[in-house]
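== Folding task for one protein ==

=== Format: two labelled lines per protein ===

==== Paired sequence and structure tokens ====
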Amino acid sequence: MAQRPALDDLLHAAVSGVGGAERPGQVEMAKAVAHAIDDGEHLLVQAGTGTGKSLAYLVPAVAHAFEAGKPAVVATATLALQAQIVDRDMPRVADALAPVLGRRPTYALVKGRRNYVCLNKLEGGFPDDEDGLLSVGQVDAAVGRLGQEVVRLREWAGATESGDRDELVPGVSERAWRQVSVSAHECMGGKCPLVAECFVERAREAAKDVDVIVTNHSFMAIDSFEGRQMLPEHDVLVVDEAHELVDRVTATITDELTGTMVMSAAKKAGRMSENTAAMDEAGEMLAQALEPLEEGRMLGIPDSVGLALARVRDTARTVQSDLKPPPGQESDGARQVARAAVDEIHENAERILEERELDVVWLNRDQRRGPVLRVAPMSVAMLVRDKVFEERTVVLTSATLELGGTFDAVAGTIGLRGEGAPKWQGLDVGSPFDYPKQAIAYVAAHLPPPGRDGAGDDTLDEIEQLVRAAGGRTLGLFSSMRAAQTAAEIMRARFGDDIPVLCQGEDQITTLVRQFARDPRTCLFGTLTLWQGVDVPGSSCQLVLIDRIPFPRPDDPLASARSQAIARMGGNGFMAVSATHAALRLAQGAGRLVRRADDRGVVAFLDSRMMTARYAGFLQRSLPPFYPTTDKKMVLAALARLDSMAPPPVAVEEPALRSLTGARADADGTEHPRPVATPPPAPVSSRSAVTSGHAWTDEQDEELRDAADAGMQLDELVDHFELSEETIAARVEQLGLTIASGALFD
């Protein structure tokens, strides 16, 4: 094993390499991560926006991988953070550490199989998910949008090096993507005739020898729980966006069943089994049993549903036996797809019938699929303790891990409390931002509390006034997709072409976010995904709207089950579950506004309960310490001022071709490190001057003149130029300009 250089040297090299300055919180976090890795003790780190936490864990992770000869795994909740690490952070860290380590650290992006195109499916090795769509799309692109998408997918698949869906821009619908991808259960694995060319297999093979592997919570959870060994052997796991871990793990092990699923599985088995008719009838029986039931949690399985589930389980078991390939033959694609579908039906029906102690079973109605029976664990704490925290050091980090000044609530949900819990430490390294000067937290206290019927006219008028004052530049975070879509439609009608409004669901999230970031006049409205994963620094996002306190729905079966369980033990179920859920979401949503030291803006809460409810103080304390107000006139004036003096938007990272490891690549597939932006050399000019040791360029002088004309203040220029007040004030005086002192919102 190689000898690891000192952490201080590595961190200094990394920070210098990215053109930044070491921050106390970042240094403290990096040392804590290195200490946890060395001692084999788990660590929870709360690191506010601007701390540079990715650098703080990547540097010690690389150092450990270099010394131990094993990769470190980084798991994120969102695609946006994955892309940031692979496209921006790791390339710069690798370049900076190469001279110190003696070689350039390597990294790879690993995703689930559904994220990659399947070459065998493209070649006809699997049946189409929709009747003849691949062949239709191939013959006649004019049959409609779906056919056109499939044709484009085929053309792209012949050119891509990675096969990664995120490389495809603009994106395609989920229905089209299903025509060129397979699930892990449908995959033929080593028996596939194209396994040697498989994008997934080649990507995972390439990942075995890297220093840092980037993946997502769900993939990490499946790898841990199911023992598939999709990730290489490792002894360090970093979980970023760790506040999302419980929800992502829960979603990963939530199962569902519908009558249509059963009948679809029977159809896929087709003539390969003589018992598909019985299975099809069982699907109809289940659909009929579920149809009259009301939505919500089931405290017991009704007799009619139990009989139907037993019939589904038994017929599926019979078909499973029929689908085994004849002796001496291998499964083909059609048989593998059928087996995967029937296996899922059998396992889910059996699980629901078991009525496990911690499982919650509920029914909800889907507009397209009808009644859906779902089952999920009430708690994943013991599962995470046993499967995630065993035999490796885990570092969990987020901007929102502490609630009420303690990590205990989050620690309890992931199995780090109670008898037999592993050792762990908690650390809050704070944030370098001056939140009270950079942002306003505005509560529209004059609005009536939100009702069940969506936003009223008063709330819609409030949205229009705020967005107009901001000149667009708005990220709208809504509690439901219906609310986001309704608001988007109404605002489009009111704004016309003056202020474009994008809405989640109209394209891939990454594509929408790039559009939003590129055009400062644009607004982006959406729901849960946008609350936590959007990182748009600069002038394109100067207003964040939050339509209502994001409590779980009253009929949310998991939340109500957890709340009732806590109440039975003598606790406050509402505060422990609903208020805590809302506090985390509000903190994440408000955190979308201030992403760097020169960001300014307003977070507007359109729910007056943020001021009047008994739990309001708890929610307010969960937010960054922005300047609080209910003064609408002052807020509108601040937004208008910010709009009038806004600098150009921050340059947007465009999508790129990727190599097998997920790193950016040229069209020929050759991997290249991302270039690190460096400032141009100062031009020689008779008008250049030196003040306080700093050489002022013509361009910087012009920026000072523009700032004076725009009414910018001294503290804003300090952040912009990253120079001291004395240096800037001296040059302002030399140029004969007038720059006011004081904070933006004084």
Summary: The first strand starts at residue 42 and ends at 47.
